Fold this protein.
Amino acid sequence: MNAGRIVALVPLLALLPIAASAQYPVRDGTAANMEPYTFAAADFGIDASSVTYSKDIAPILQRSCESCHRVGGGAPMSLTTYGEVRRWSQRIKERTAIRDRMGAMPPFYVEPGLGIQHFKNDPSLSDHELALIQAWADNGAPQGNPADLPEPLDWPEDRGWALGEPDLVVSSPLMTMPAVGPDRWGDIGMVPTGLTEDRWVKSVEIREINDIPTDAEVTTVGGRYIFHHMTYTSGVLNEDGTGLVGESTQGWPIHEVGRNADVFANGLGMLLPANSALSLRASHLHSTGWRETSGRLEFGFTFHPEGYEPRYRRSGGSGGDGINIDVRPGIGGQEFHSYRVLEEHTMITAFEPHLHAPGMRMCLEAIWGINRFTLNCVGYDHNWVKQYLYEEDHAPLLPKGTILHTIGFVDTTPENPNLADSRNWAGGGRRSVANMFIDLGQSVRLTEEQFQEEMARRRALMKDRNEYDIACPLCWAPEFRAVTEEEDQGGAP
Ligand code: HEC
């Protein structure tokens, strides 16, 4: 599609947001579809020749890239000074322009202009920012006036905590992996939390601390970390401290390298009881391929204030189908579908597509009555498992009876760079050469009263009845009230 020509024919439309989204490439879940999002600076009233690193680009990199692209940040190169950034200008342009596709930077793949667009900790770039980057790179990546530079950000020496200093840090045992060797799966033991009272957890962030020098030239994520993932539970320690009391155990969101921290929705928490421990049941560790490495995981918890009681209950169950999938060799655009009926009023607080190497994309739809809503479509890159946390005022608020339709898109052609071998059939399974199709997202159950209250709150945020909240299908439905006894006896009200 030639976006430039459309804009030239209908110049006025370029001013309307609707025209901007009409230029977006259509994603079909195939690896061949890499069409970038391209924008002309002039459409945003920007003089392309005036765009400079100091004035326009450095602030974007500070906000969306430096958390990883700095010394000790985990990415292969630092992007904090003009000297560092300049030679990457073309790659920066390319990687940011694919936006919601495998390989995009920053790794956050929500398709814009479709479904819900309000997420917590969203590092993605706006159309305007992409226009700036594209104009700048095409124009020879000029530095501009260093006096225009924003104040440098003050990053911690180590990786730091993305969510800020936690209230409690619990460490796993130190594990050592040889430079080259087979992967290691299994239980790595229990670690007490040391809590002497019950605390409700507001967020949890997990980071790997290891002895790889922060300035080592490592070009792969697997070369920098040894923990691939960790599935863990918590519970109250039994009397002799050798296990967890059965009914107190609960599973936590998984740790996977590259996955963002978990912030539980307002009104929700997870309990870490007094005298509890984390049971690090299912770890997967691997060699870095270049040096013996010792590392451990730190679990950083932040708490709700003492005396806090959560308003909502977590809802079990998620979408997708981990088992009955049939992934054919050498075919792009294969789709998986799963349907789940919500048995209670539900607020979805996070969407977390989980596919394996052939995964390209996942969409989530809500089907209610005769309506079918696309809640979100997001790209997928198995090098980066991402979780999308809805902002409170935009979280899907779905009545009981809604059918959640999850659609996974996979590509097993050689064009998919994440795939080891495109010739094999694969089904569901735990190994990376087997497949998964799951939404690991989170949701809460609402009582009738909570559901009505939450809808009233959301209606109040809308300006008029022409405004539509895609995430709240019943927000404008006629208000529901119980039939009075009189009406019940006297026939139709
Ligand atoms: C969450 C961490 C993270 C963030 C945020 C991030 N990157 Fe990256 N970036 C990485 C890692 C890790 C790699 C190497 C692995 C890969 O390519 O996926 C990488 C690779 C790249 C590459 C490719 C390097 C090459 O060898 O070709 C470019 C270019 C890049 N990033 C630019 C950016 C820009 C620009 C931003 C912000 C708009 C950004 N990144 C945000 C972690 C990050």
Q: What stands out?
A: The chain has three domains: 3-148, 168-311, 314-446. The helical segments are 3-9, 17-22, 53-64, 82-85, 89-97, 127-138, 448-461, 485-489.
